[in-house]
Amino acid sequence: MKQPRGGEACPSRGVRAVGVCQRFGRRVKFAIRAGRVQGFLCTSAWWGWVYLGERVPGVVYCSMGKRIASGGAGVVRGPGPGRGQGSGDGGALFARGHLLQLAGLSAKELRAILGRARVFAGHDADGSDDPKAWRERLRGKVVANLFFEDSTRTRVSFAVAAERLGAQVINLTSVGSSISKGETVADTALNVAAMGVDGIVMRHKSSGAPHLVVRTLAERAHSYDDAGRVCSVINAGDGRHEHPTQGLLDIYTIAERFDRLDGFDLSGLTVGIVGDIASSRVARSGIVGLGALGAKVVCIGPPTLVPRSIEAMGCKTTHDLDGVIGKLDAVNVLRIQFERHDGGGGGGEKMPGASNAVASVREYYEVYGLNSARLAKLRPGAIVMHPGPINRGVEMSSEAADSGQSMVLRQVRHGVAVRMAVLEMCLNASAQGR
Ligand code: ASP
Fold it and tell me: Best substitution site from 337, 338, 341 to test ligand 1's pocket, by max atoms within 8 Å of Cβ?
C-alpha cells in the first residue's frame, strides 16, 4: 500500500493512501493532491478533519470530533509520530514553549528534556547544578493547572514540580469553575492567560484540545498581553491522543533501570504495552517516544483494544501475551479506559465492565491480566510498569503491582523530575519571547 507523504502530489482520483486516525486508532483512507488531503474515509464511516504526518508517512490525525462534509479538504500538517527524525510541529511547538505531544520531537529534543530531568532526579553526578538554586528557576512565574478531567498523580506532580522551581501554582478544575457554566476551554484559557499566567498545564477529554488552546492563545495574544507573548501550554493528557510527560517519565524509568541514563539510548530493549491501546494516550506517547530513542515496542491485548492499524505508528502488535511476555524487558500495563468506551448502558460515569470492547472483565484478566504466573515468565531483570490508577484484579494482580519488579512508584517519583524539566524549558522559552 502506498504510504502518503505530506506535501507530496498524488493523483486526485480515488483512494490513494491509508493512515491511522489518532483519535480512534482506526484506518483511514484518503487521497492527496498538491500536498492537501482531498478526501478521506475512516472505515468506521467517521468523517472529520485529518492531519497528515509530514515527516512520518501514514499517520493521520483527526481533530476534536468535528464533522465536515464528506470529501472536504483537510489540512496537511505534520508531523506524525516518528522514530527520531521529526522536527516538525512537535519540535517547533516545544521550541516556542509548548509541549503538546512527543510526536514530532527529535531524539535530540527528547534527550535534552530527559537529560535535564536527570539533574532534577539527582542522577547527575557532576554536581554542577545546585539544588538550592532550583527555586530561582521559575521564581515569580505562575502556573495554572487546568484539569477538565480527573487526575491524581499528574496534577499533584506538576504542582510539586512547579513549586520546587519557585513558581506559584493555581489549580482549576471543572467543578467549582465557570467550566461547569458552559464556558469553552478556549475562553477559559484566554481568561487565565489574560491574568498574566506564564504556563497552562491542561488535561482534557478531547484529543487536540491543547492544540486548539495554543492556536487560540496565539491568535488573540495581543488582546491579553501588551507585548503579544503567548503563555506556555503543556499537555497533561488529551483524550486518546497523547500524555507526553507520562511518556517521558516512563522512558526515564526504563533508562534508569537498564543503565541508559547516560545518553538515553534504548536500542536493544523491547517494551511491551499491554491493554487498552485504542483508548490510551499513554500508549501513543510511549510508542513514539520509546521508538525515537531506539526501543522496540510491542502492543499487546485483545483485537478490540489493540487495532492492527496502530502499527503505522512504528510498533508491532500481538494478541498473545503469553507468547511474547518472556521476550520483554519492560511491560507497561494499562488500565482499561472504560470511560472512553461505548456500551454497558446508561450515560455518565462508566463503571468497570461497562464496555462493548471488553465482554467480561474476569475473562480479560484471565487472558491479559499480569498475574503471578505471568510475572514468573518475565525475563530476569525485566520490569513492570503502570501509569496509574491501577485497577487491581482487572489488568494486574496486587502481587504484580507490589512486586520487586514493579517500578510503579519509581515512575511517580521520576514524574516530578521530568515535569520540572518540561516546565523549566517551556516557561523559559516563553520568557525569551517566542
Ligand atoms: N493516568 C493515565 C491517563 O491519564 C492513565 C489512566 O488514566 O489510565 O491517561
Answer: 337
